[in-house]
């Protein structure tokens, strides 16, 4: 520290050097030195302070700049008294210092505001406010506000110069941004000061005051907000003349307040909107002759204010839309400097003559005509009418985005007509805004667009595709065409023909002219979008257009810009799909495309995206036209593929693998011997050991495509070594890769069976299969793949005589595994039972009668072996009738008395599966025991459920008539498990033949109002297992009445049933019946009932449980449930979790609705997340972190919503989220997950 102190003192000496460069370097080194230490000694703080303040007044601008930079470092390490001293000095210099460097002093204060620690906020604010108020107040005096100290220096009498006032109001805005929440006691005084500045004669001062008002509004209380609104609206209502300069300032303030406060302005619209309408409808004669520009500016400001209202109060503004939207449509044509000939519409371009509005043809000499020289006398420099037209279109754009679906056709149609007509405005700013409105219309109203709309806008859009138009207009016009072309429901073929011709011509002119390359990417992407439409093959003259597109895309590949190359190569891939194989110029087209693609492939240090697009285009070309004479020679194909082969281990390897997969899968005739060589196959196999999952799977799929189609081209030795490495992939470390390996082996066994003739290879494969079958990670798809492979192996062993693959050998191998192993998990039991059943029942010549007794003998061994044996017998019985095996059923029924529950359940399931294959013989035994053995009732009902669910194509009379009455008899039992099985059985029985279905439906519906809540519980549970058709659907409303059942458990079960129905396969007409009944009932159930909240003791911790709320209910429908979501965001953790899942889902499917809800939901976000952060630090913290994770994931999803940046509340909230360490960590992990997938 001593050494550092000495260096700092030496640098302080150098800051007073006469050479400005020496002072600059000394100050810069001082900043670096201060950054390197944790704290500044008190003895140094005074000299450092004086040196930096002195440097702020230095004659050198560079020295001043580096002093400001140093200031941001020292205020973090100074005592607060030193910082206050600097603030006082800078405040004095700002008010009474030199005019030419006043901005430097202000920058110093701004730096202190932004860099000071949070805890210094109250004292810094108290020191700064008197300075700012002194620079803004109209007269001198004591303390401006009660509680604030007086100025420590004298100032001249106000008013201060305009530049001082601007600086003070701007610094006040920065102070409110940083420390507004700690200035609560001064909000009233600050608000009064800001409102006073709205009447300031300086226009720039008023502008900065408006911005400050926007920062102040979100942090003041409701009382002050109402005072502000009352004050502004009273001034607007009291304005008698539109020439009053501050009037448009008040209107601008309304717009800023609305953007900052959102729906708080809603109740005031009844006073605001009529005033805006009054000024929007003002005529030209109302403007003061002294201030003619006020007329235009006033209309512009009114429109901007209404645009803010539309965006922030979309629901409250609906009653005013019928009055305002027509005015906006009219003002979008506001152009008082044009004479419109009678009977003509809006003038287009420069072909219409301009003259003053009060001129007549009598004022013009008959001998004189209107020529260009005369037009020059009427310059456009002073014409600001375009601002009104643009503001009107901006308002219509907001209307389309936020309220288009809330009004009738009588308002919608004029809006569409206006937007389309304004695309031809003479001003490029207005034209661009009209196109943006059109783009919003196409984006947000996709379902309402028709082919007639496309026919109407097509000629106008086509005219804009010329280099003579403004570049920004070109870009938006192309975006509109691209968006229209991306809608598959629209018929645009006629328009697409003209668009393609204009786009091709435009691209050609752009490439030849060597200018406006920023246009090439959207132009090429637009052509590609049209080409990718499914209906593009039916476009008129498509063959001619394809040749032109191929030529244009090939030429664009020769440009030097990587992004243009990338777009051109993507267009090459798209146009290949459209090429007709019988095209007269096929060879010429393919040669052009191949040359262009190959030229990009062989480039050195080419952009990665360009290389990937080139590889993709080449794969599409070879996959589609490898049979062309262009590729008949192996030399041509080898030359084309050589760059791809060389890149298989480079950064573009994923693109290479995708290309390889496409080529190998789509064209089996193409010679790909280059990829089948041992070295190439080894490179592919090496990718299977990479860390990236996506890379491993893609590499295996490419390898699989090669071997499935071209295994016969691989020599036997290479194929065998490849198969050994594929077999090694069958491991539980990566079950997905293991599944792909098993599926590939199954395919190869049927095509290349001799590759498995070696006993050593078969041994290796069997060892991996035995190990894999013992994994607890297998799911249905893995088991299905394993079963298919075992079936193929049994057939292979039979045909080739491979001893180890014979049925008996395979059965013995797995039987020994069962006998030698200890405990098996439930999933492993399922795996092994399916494996054994597959081996026993696989063709050819299955013979279960010899293997089932072996399994019965194994039922006498250890517990896990018994469990697998019973499950295997059940699986065998599911496929083949084994009910005749001697003593089998008796043995199974005896297991119902076993001491292990899992043995009982497995036996019950096995009995049901055996019975499903021989109902006539086994089902009566189950029913008889059901009546005589109450202790086995649950197990027998489980067996009965298996019979009902698994039976195959049974006639109506195959089930005993007494079955349904027997099930109803047990509905009133206390055992919830039995009731659940009965519900499943009754629902499944309703899916039987028509006779059974009608009779059973009648009996079930009759019990909906049963006095017993247990019976009602069973009846509503049965509904989820019924295949609802039109006939049964008429009874659904009766079932839904149980949503308001008096019994809590019945009500809960009804909600679970509805949830299952809505999540299940779609049923025609069901949604229309369910939603009107379910949503109101669901919202009622979401209200918390304190009487149903109980505390559950989990030992180490306790947790409150709400018996009324089910966490999955709300996610069934995304409708108008803002109030429900507001409560859910501060409810129980499980409910919050589901609420965030709903919001993330809505952000993808109905983003506009999310935007409308955000102003109301953001305070709930804050409240709920604060509570979860607090809970995450205590017991049960993991549950709270799950909620926070769901919340952050939802917020990330919100960022993809178009227009989210306009939500000031959410933007402010998200900035706080990003600054919270715990949420920062969660956000980083989620972003990493998204990037990885």
TrEMBL record:
SUPFAM superfamilies named in the record: ARM repeat
Keywords: Mitochondrion, Repeat, Ubl conjugation pathway
Domain TATA-binding protein interacting (TIP20): start-end pairs: 1070-1216
Source species, domain of life: Eukaryota
BP GO terms, sorted: SCF complex assembly
Record Pfam families: TIP120 (PF08623)
InterPro entries in the cross-refs: ARM-like, ARM-type_fold, CAND1/CAND2, TATA-bd_TIP120
Similarity-based family: Belongs to the CAND family.
Protein name: TATA-binding protein interacting (TIP20) domain-containing protein
């Amino acid at each position: 520290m001593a050494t550092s102190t000495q260096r700092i003192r030496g640098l302080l000496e150098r800051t007073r050097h006469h050479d400005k460069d020496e002072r600059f370097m000394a100050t810069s080194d001082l900043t670096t030195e201060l950054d390197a230490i944790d704290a500044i000694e008190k003895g140094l703080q005074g000299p450092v302070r004086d040196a930096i303040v002195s440097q702020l007044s230095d004659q050198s601008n560079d020295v001043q700049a580096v002093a400001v930079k140093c200031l941001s470092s020292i205020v973090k390490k100074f005592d607060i008294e030193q910082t206050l001293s600097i603030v006082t000095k800078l405040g004095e210099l700002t008010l009474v210092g030199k005019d030419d460097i006043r901005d430097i002093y202000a920058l110093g204060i701004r730096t202190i505001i932004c860099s000071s620690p949070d805890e210094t906020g109250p004292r810094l604010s108290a020191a700064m406010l008197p300075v700012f108020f002194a620079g803004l107040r109209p007269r001198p005096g004591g303390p401006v506000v009660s509680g604030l100290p007086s100025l420590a220096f004298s100032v001249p009498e106000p008013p201060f110069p305009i530049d001082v006032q601007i600086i003070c109001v701007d610094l006040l805005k920065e102070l409110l941004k940083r420390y507004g929440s700690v200035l609560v006691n001064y909000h009233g005084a600050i608000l009064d000061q800001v409102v006073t500045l709205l009447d300031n004669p300086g226009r720039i001062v008023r502008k900065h005051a408006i911005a400050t008002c926007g920062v102040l509004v979100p942090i003041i209380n409701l009382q002050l907000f109402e005072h502000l609104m009352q004050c502004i609206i009273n001034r607007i209502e009291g304005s008698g003349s539109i020439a009053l300069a501050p009037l448009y300032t008040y209107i601008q303030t309304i717009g800023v307040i609305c953007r900052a406060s959102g729906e708080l302005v809603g109740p005031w619209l009844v006073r605001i909107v009529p005033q805006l309408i009054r000024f929007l409808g003002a005529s030209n004669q109302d403007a003061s002759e002294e201030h003619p520009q006020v007329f235009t500016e006033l209309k512009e400001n009114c429109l901007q204010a209404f645009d803010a209202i539309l965006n922030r109060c979309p629901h409250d503004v609906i009653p005013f839309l019928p009055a305002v939207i027509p005015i906006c449509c009219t003002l979008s044509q506001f152009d008082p400097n044009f004479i419109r000939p009678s009977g003509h519409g809006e003038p287009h371009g420069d072909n219409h003559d301009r003259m003053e509005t009060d001129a007549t043809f009598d004022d013009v000499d008959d001998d004189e005509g209107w020529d260009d020289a005369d037009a020059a006398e009427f310059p456009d420099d002073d014409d600001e009418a375009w601002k009104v037209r643009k503001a009107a279109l901006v308002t219509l754009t907001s209307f389309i985005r936020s309220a288009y679906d809330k009004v009738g056709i009588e308002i919608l149609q004029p809006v569409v007509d206006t937007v389309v007509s304004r695309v031809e405005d003479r001003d490029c700013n207005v034209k661009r805004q009209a196109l943006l409105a059109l783009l919003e219309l196409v984006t947000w109203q996709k379902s309402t667009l028709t082919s007639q709309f496309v026919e109407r806008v097509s000629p106008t859009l086509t005219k804009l595709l010329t280099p003579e138009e403004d570049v920004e207009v070109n870009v938006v016009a192309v975006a509109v065409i691209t968006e229209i072309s991306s809608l598959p429901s629209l018929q645009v073929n006629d328009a697409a023909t003209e668009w393609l011709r204009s786009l091709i011509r435009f691209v050609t002119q752009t490439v030849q002219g060597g200018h406006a390359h920023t246009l090439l990417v959207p132009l090429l992407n637009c052509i590609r979008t049209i080409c990718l439409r499914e209906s593009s093959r039916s476009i008129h003259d498509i063959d001619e257009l394809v040749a032109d597109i191929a030529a244009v895309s090939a030429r664009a590949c020769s440009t030097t810009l990587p992004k243009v190359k990338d777009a051109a190569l993507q267009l090459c891939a798209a146009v290949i799909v459209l090429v007709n194989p019988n095209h007269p110029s096929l060879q010429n087209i393919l040669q052009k495309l191949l040359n262009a693609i190959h030229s990009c492939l062989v480039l050195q240090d080419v952009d990665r995206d360009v290389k990937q697009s080139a590889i993709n285009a080449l794969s599409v070309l070879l996959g589609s036209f490898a049979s062309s004479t262009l590729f008949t020679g192996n030399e041509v194909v080898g030359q084309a593929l050589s760059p791809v082969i060389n890149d298989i281990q480079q950064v573009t390897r994923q693109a290479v693998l995708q290309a390889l997969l496409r080529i190998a899968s789509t064209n089996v005739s193409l010679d790909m011997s280059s990829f089948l060589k041992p070295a190439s196959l080894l490179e592919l196999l090496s990718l299977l050991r990479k860390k990236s999952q996506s890379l491993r799977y893609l590499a295996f799929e490419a390898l699989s495509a090669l071997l499935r189609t071209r295994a016969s081209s691989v020599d036997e030795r290479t194929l065998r070594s490849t198969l050994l490495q594929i077999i090694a992939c069958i491991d539980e470390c990566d079950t997905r890769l293991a599944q792909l390996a098993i599926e590939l082996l199954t395919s190869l066994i049927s095509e290349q069976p001799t590759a498995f003739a070696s006993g050593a290879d078969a041994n290796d494969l069997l060892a991996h299969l035995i190990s894999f079958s013992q994994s607890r990670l297998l799911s249905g798809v893995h088991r299905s793949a394993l079963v298919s492979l075992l079936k193929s192996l049994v057939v292979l062993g039979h045909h080739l005589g491979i001893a180890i693959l014979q049925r008996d050998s395979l059965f013995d191998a797995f039987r020994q595994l069962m006998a030698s192993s200890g405990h098996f998990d439930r999933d492993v039991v399922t795996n092994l039972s399916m494996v054994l059943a597959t081996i026993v029942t696989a063709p050819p010549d299955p013979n279960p009668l010899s293997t089932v007794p072996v399994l019965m003998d194994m039922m006498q061994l250890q517990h896990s072996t018994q469990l697998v044996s019973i499950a295997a017998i059940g699986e065998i019985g599911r496929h083949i009738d084994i009910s005749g095996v001697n003593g089998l059923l008796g043995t199974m029924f005896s297991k119902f008395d076993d001491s292990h529950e899992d043995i009982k359940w497995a036996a019950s399931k096995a009995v049901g599966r055996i019975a499903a294959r021989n109902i006539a013989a086994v089902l009566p035994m189950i029913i008889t025991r059901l009546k005589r053995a109450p202790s086995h009732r649950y197990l027998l009902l489980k067996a009965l459920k298996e019979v009902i669910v698994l039976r195959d194509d049974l006639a109506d009379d195959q089930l005993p008539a007494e079955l349904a009455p027997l099930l109803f008899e047990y509905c009133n039992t206390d055992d919830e498990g039995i009731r659940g099985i009965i519900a499943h059985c009754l629902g499944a029985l309703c899916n039987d033949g028509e006779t059974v279905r009608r009779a059973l439906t009648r009996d079930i519906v009759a019990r909906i109002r049963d006095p017993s809540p247990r019976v009602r519980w069973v009846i509503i549970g049965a509904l989820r297992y019924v295949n609802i058709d039109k006939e049964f659907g008429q009874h659904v409303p009766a079932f839904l009445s149980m949503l308001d059942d008096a019994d809590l458990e019945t009500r809960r079960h009804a909600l679970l049933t509805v949830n299952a129905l809505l999540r299940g396969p779609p049923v025609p007409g069901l949604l229309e019946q369910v939603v009107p009944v379910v949503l109101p009932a669901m919202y009622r159930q979401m209200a918390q009932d304190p009487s149903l909240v109980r505390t559950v003791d989990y030992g180490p911790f306790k947790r409150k449980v709400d018996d009324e709320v089910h966490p999955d209910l709300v996610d069934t429908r995304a409708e108008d449930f803002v109030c429900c979501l507001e409560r859910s965001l501060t409810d129980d953790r499980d409910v919050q979790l589901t609420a965030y899942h709903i919001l993330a889902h809505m952000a993808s499917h109905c983003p506009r609705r999310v935007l409308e809800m955000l102003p109301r939901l953001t305070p709930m976000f804050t409240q709920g997340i604060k509570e979860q952060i607090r809970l995450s630090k205590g017991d049960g913290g993991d549950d709270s972190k799950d909620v926070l994770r769901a919340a952050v994931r939802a917020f990330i999803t919100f960022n993809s919503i178009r227009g989210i940046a306009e939500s000031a509340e959410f933007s402010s909230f998200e900035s706080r989220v990003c600054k919270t360490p715990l949420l920062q960590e969660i956000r980083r992990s989620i972003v990493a997950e998204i990037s990885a997938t």
